[in-house]
Amino acid sequence: MASVANEITQQMAERAPGTWVCTPRDFLGLGSRDAVDQALSRLVKAGTLRRIGQGLYDMPRFSIRLNRPAPADMDAAVAALARRDGVRIMPDGLVAANRLGLTNAVPAKTSYLTDGASRTLKIDGRTVRFRHGRPRIMQWAGRPAAPVVQALVWLGPDAATDAQVVATLRRRLPDEVKHDLSEHINDVPGWAMPLARSIVSGPAIAA
């Protein structure tokens, strides 16, 4: 038991605190599932690890600004769920559009798309919704251009054709993203293909 707990602590410490979320499945190479569960429980009681959701743990970092442990990294928690459950997960279109600077709107609840089942979970005290996404969209999961496609779909045919949308994406997208979008342009919804071509082949626009 102690050796399993020590190995888990060492592996967690090798990563910057707060940047990686684990599940019991990540440590099954160290012992039986029962031994891993007991070790994790022991580490939580000792304050070494923090349980942020059902079967989700992190090594908390202290926030000087907040004067308390910093919130869990939600993207890291979602990545842990994807590893554990063998599914693909990515932020929904509103989040993607916000991160790309295409909207100031922010979601009332943290929301993701998945090719797994729709469900709602509590992670670090926050309600997180996972909504089953269409295969046409989920095939972009993990690709550099995924947020662009999600944002365009969220905006829809009318809003996405605004010249400012294209100008913003031409200016902000790195070459890697533009290349990925170009390489997989046939996977973009039909109405968005002219926009995607304009984004990747149009002239650069000064900031």
Structural summary, described in words:
With 207 residues, this protein is of the alpha+beta class. It is 44% helix and 16% strand. It folds into two domains: 2-74, Orthogonal Bundle (Arc Repressor Mutant, subunit A); 87-201, no CATH class. A four-stranded mixed beta sheet has the order 6-7-9-8. Strands 1-3-2 form a three-stranded antiparallel beta sheet, with helices on both faces. A two-stranded antiparallel sheet has the order 4-5. Helix 1 packs across helix 2 (33-45), helix 4 crosses helix 6 (146-160) and helix 7 crosses helix 9. The longest helix has 15 residues, at 146-160. The chain is elongated and about 60 Å long.
Short descriptors:
207 residues; alpha+beta; Arc Repressor Mutant, subunit A; 2 domains; 4-stranded mixed β-sheet; 3-stranded antiparallel β-sheet; 9 helices; 44% helix; elongated
Task: Provide a short characterization of the protein structure.
This protein has 207 residues and is of the alpha+beta class. The protein has helices spanning 2-13, 33-45, 74-85, 93-99, 135-138, 146-160, 163-172, 175-183, 193-201; strands spanning 21-22, 50-53, 56-58, 62-63, 68-69, 89-91, 110-114, 119-123, 126-132. The mean pLDDT is 90.
